[in-house]
Amino acid sequence: MKTLKSIAAVAFVILLIILSSCSNDDTPTVKNFYFVGGEGNVPKYWKNGVATELTDGKNYADATAITVVGNDVYVAGYEYNSPSVAKYWKNGVATALTDRTKWAQTSAITVAGNDVYVAGFETNDTWIDVATYWKNGVATELTDGKHHANLAAITVVGNDVYVAGNDYSVAKYWKNGIATVLNDGTKAAYAYAITVVGNDVYVAGDHGGLEIGVATYWKNGVATALTDGKHHAVARAITVVVNDVYVAGYEYNGSEISRLFNGAYITDGRSVAKFWKNGVATTLTDGQNNASANAITVVGDDVYVAGNDGNVAKYWKNGVANIVVPNASYGNWVTGMFITTN
User: Fold this and answer.
1) Quick one: pLDDT at residue 260?
2) For residue 317, how many other CB atoms are within 10 A of its CB?
3) Does the residue 204 lie in any domain?
4) Among 38-42, 251-255, 279-283, 333-337, which is the least confidently predicted range?
5) Alpha carbon of residue 25 to chain centroid
6) Backbone angles phi, psi at 11, to 5 degrees
7) Which residues contact 170 (CB under 8 A, 6 or more apart)?
8) Which of 12-16, 163-167, 295-299, 321-325 has the lowest mean pLDDT?
9) CA 302 to CA 313: how far, in whole Å?
């Protein structure tokens, strides 16, 4: 006859096995790494290090964003062909969104159900950039074409379409075409990323004067500065996990800069790739090369950031660098990342 003690011991072991099994099932693990960018003159994406070329390299082209749905890989970008043509690729097959009568580019892509949304800009008849997104190839213009504007990010939640971008030097996001202004225009601001969690809308970018940009994110229009304004800095990507806000970008280690439209010309210093968790910075590069962190994803307790260190595409796991394309023949870059999990 089994004793009560032996029965209790067996029950305890069974309980440990059950708890261990539940814990393992609840912990996400990385299944596939996707990176998008280019090498030499050819836009590409990489799945677990294996490249797919998106053009033949005859014209300059760029791949700017990536998303994955099931087994389908969607990439946004553009190709210069007098003028540039806005495009997206599904599994390497291109769909042109514009017809070469006007300049156009894309910066972001998302898929909701059977609908493909791509965001960027297209010029009007007077060659002014108009902030535009396309749903299944049909364009929606969000600005009036009186001055340059563009869209840098897009996400869809239910029936609501959120996009973020710039209307000249004013950072904005739009929900179903209705704009929310993020700065008053007295200081230039630029929006590069957007994510929506519940009823909260987060936008990342930079906010500053004509010379120094401050890496910033906005939650429901309220700004949080990530840098002190001593050096130019930009937030390029954002994700939110429970109550933690993760932002990726860069900060210069020099101070002399001149602001140009939708960017900055730096005359001193190097850009240092960084990410911030709830405002606390982690430095990813040593400042020897110009570097940028362009995408960020959190899997379980691990933070993945993708970008460039000089002309080398890299990703960082918890601050530790990995090279996206080992032994590359040409300089390469990464503009976006997508990670799938088991």
Assistant:
1) 54
2) 13
3) yes
4) 251-255
5) 29
6) -60, -40
7) 181, 182, 183, 185, 189
8) 12-16
9) 20
The arithmetic mean of pLDDT across residues 194-198, rounded, is 98
Tokens 């029965």 — which residue?
Answer: 7
- Answer whether residue 245 is part of any domain: yes
CATH number (domain holding residue 221): 2.120.10.30
Domain count for the chain, please give it: 1
pLDDT at 259 over 70: no
* Both tokens assigned to 313: 């595409």
3-state secondary structure of 303: strand
Q: Are 134 and 121 in contact (CB under 8 A)?
A: no
| 5: pLDDT strictly greater than 50 | no
**SS3 label, residue 18:** helix
Q: Which domain holds residue 174?
A: 33-341
Q: How far is the CA of 318 from the CAs of 233, 275, 276, in angstroms?
A: 21, 10, 12
The enclosing H or E element of 155 equals: strand 149-157
Q: Are 282 and 319 in contact (CB under 8 A)?
A: yes
Contact 262, 244 (CB under 8 A): no
Whether the CB-CB separation of 132 and 98 falls below 8 Å is answered with: no
Residue 22 lies in a domain: no
Exposed / middle / buried, residue 255 (Cβ in 10 Å: 0-12, 13-18, 19+):
middle
Count Cβ atoms within 10 A of the Cβ of residue 120 and give its class: 0-12 exposed, 13-18 middle, 19 or more buried. buried
37 strand-pairing partners: 44, 334
9 in a structural domain: no
Rounded average pLDDT over 139-144: 98
Distance CA 220, CA 240 (A): 13
Beta-sheet strand order (sheet of 271-277): 233-241, 244-252, 271-277, 280-283
The total number of residues shown for the chain amounts to 342
